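Help! Submission page says 'invalid entity' but I think these are all valid:
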Amino acid sequence: MDAMLSALSIVGTPDVLLTAFLGSLFGLAFGSIPGLTFTMALVLILPVTFSLDPTNSIALLLGTYIGGASGGTVAAILIGVPGTPSSAATVVDGYKLTQAGRASITIATSVIVSTFGGLFSLVIMLFAVSLLAKAALAFGPAEIFALVVFGLSTICGLAERSLVRGLIGGVIGLMVMSIGQDPIDGVPRLTFGSVQLLQGVELLVAMIALFAIPQVVETLTEHRSGIKPKINATDIRVELPSLKFLFGYRWNVIRSSILGTLVGAVPGAHGPIAAFLAYSQEKRLAKNPENWGKGEMGGVIAPETANNAVTGGAMIPLLALGIPGDAAMAILLGGFLIHGIQPGPLLIAENPEIIYTIYLLFGLAYLMVLCVQLLGVRLFVQALKIPSQYLAIIIMVMCVTGAFAVRNTLFDVGAMILIGFFGYVLKKCRIPLTPIVLALVLGPTMEREFRTAMIMSGDDLSILVQSAPSLIFLTLTLLVIGTQVVGVVRNRRPKAV
Amino acid sequence: MTDQFRDRLVGVVLLLIALAWIAASIYAIPDGYSGSSYGPRAFPVWLGVLLAILSLISIVTSLRGGQQLPAAIPSDDAEAIAEPSGKDELWAAATVFGFLLLMLGGMWLFGFLASTIILVAFFLWFVLGSRSVLLTVLLSIGLGAGIWYGMSRFLGVYLPTGLWGI
């Protein structure tokens, strides 16, 4: 209790509050601009912390991390281009809701459920940090591979109108991600001597290209043809969700929070995996799954809750064992170490006030992000009042900027144009683009973990079914695919008159 | 072009891509060093085979009369059903990819700031037919200078200055 009070007195000082607020704003800015990620924001903010005391440094780093994790939503919902890979699943229904004139309520709802997801994971972090950390470390390459394969089964749900086309999209995404340096042996794969291609296709560049460019072409086609834009400026009204409205999605939010926290605790699993898994899980459980993908609020709530619950989940192995689960956690760990904070079991036992300070700052950052985004809803939706043809030009410039900013190279801008062209052609050929994005997100992890498992087992495939978690995930995958195939076959049969 | 013919064409093109991909994976990817039989070639080859199988399914489906896809968005709204002409679509695609390619070349040569201001103004005036000088000037300079200043000043991301260092 003394430790908690001590932490409260530290966190309550104006300078810490201000630092956390500035960090949240910085993170939000990075998260909301397609092409910029919170990992990049953390890299840039880390040197700033050298001149700050440890508490202010943690406040700045956590504010940036949480702001960045939450910031991708607005662009995903408003313009259909995810600010971060974690928001890719949100685009599916979020942008359709915007086209239906419900942008403000969608953004506000997603901000509220994101905060809930983040705070839920904080509570889990408070009470089950040691237990979950140990359980998460039991996930080896075989288990993570099975989890990712289960995530890929989401393609069946994202395939829109044809399972075969959805699967073709997924395979194309996986093929694109296999270009570049091999993740295990380091040899070049299908780079044909290009040095730049060795780094492979950058996920963010591909996402910007696939989501934004076909959308911009469609917008300008409608402008040229004189077709009324789908988003009517006069229909745009600021509407916030009522408690009753939110309460209607309580089970979706709770299930997605649990899923996000658990996925986040597994080293190597990230926000996009949690978001797509939550989307798929809630679509399967929904009363009206046929409405998903056409502008269903549950399709925004599930991924947004899950990808924010990942933040707390990812902190669990970091704080309890000092093990960073992803790049952002590694930068946070670096920031902690620079200021003499060594996360791990000893920190929890010997310096509980530091742990409580981290918990409080984590919660505080979420509340600050919530306030900033809720206050900004009125401003965000004003963007939709810009005539669609001018918005298209703005989005194109933002795409170029975002693609360049990922790795500071014009090669990525060229890659974005090329991928955007193929994305447009594939869309015209009625091949859905979302499965491609899902495969781009999950593909590298799937291959890396599978091959690591094979090296560990001496090429013995039975390692994939030796543990309970991998067996469960693979069985679930077969069930999902089996259900879809049976559904397709039944639909093909001529109905009896 | 009917949907069935288009599906068949797409299936054939994808099948050819899959075969080329498998050949490239076998001949262009070197052996790995890990000693595992699941080396660097394994995944690309499997993916090529999978794409070939899916393409064949797609071709066979289209030959058997095509898959009856449900309507994308059932709607009674006449405007929602209205289809733009192929000419308009071609114009839009040419505009978007033309703009992006010119931006790429412009950034390499003149840098982000100059190329954005010039290209946005050009597209607004000549391609989109805006006849408001104020809008053209404000949007082009606002976008170019705003993004340039915001990215470098607040986010620490420096955009290209081009060969001439503008």
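Support: the input was valid. A stray whitespace character was the problem, and the output above is from the cleaned input. Confidence is low (pLDDT under 50) at residues 71-81 of chain B.
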